Amino acid sequence: MKTPDLRRVDAHEKVTGSARYGADRVPADLAYAMFAVATIGRGRTVAIDTAAAEAVPGVRLVLTRFNEDELRGPGFLMGGGFAFQSLQPLLSDVVAYRGQPIALVVADTLVAATEAAELVRARYEAEPFAVGLDDEGATSVVQEEALPWFPDIKVGDAESAYAASPVQIDETYLHPAQHQVPMELISSVVEWQGDRLVVHEGTQNAGALRHGVATQLNLDPADVEVISPYIGGGFGSRNALQPHIGPLALAARRLMRPVKLVVPRPQTFHAGSFRPVSRHRIRLGADPSGRLLAALHDAEHQTSRHDLYPAMFTEMTSRLYAVPNFGGRQRLVQTDVQTPGFMRAPMEGPASFAFESAIDALAYATGQDPVELRLANDTATDPVTGLPFSSRHLAQCLTRGAERFGWDKRDPRPGSMRAADGSFVGLGVAVGAHPVLVAPAVARMSAAADGRVTVGVDGHEMGQGIRSAIALLVAEDLGVPVRDVVVQVGDTRIAPQHLTAGAWGTATALPAVHKALRELRKQLGTGDTGTVDVAAAVRATGGGATEVEVTSVGPGQPPEMLDRSRAGLFSAAGPVFPDFTAFSWVAHFVEVRIEATTRRISVPRALCVVDCGRVASPVTAASQVRGGVTWGISQALRESSEVDPRFGGFLNTTLEEYPFVVNSDIQEIDFDFIDEPDLLLNDVGVKGLGEVTMIGAAAAVANAVFHATGQRQNRLPIRIEHVM
Question: Which keywords does this Swiss-Prot/TrEMBL entry list (predicted)?
Answer without folding.
Answer: Molybdenum, Oxidoreductase
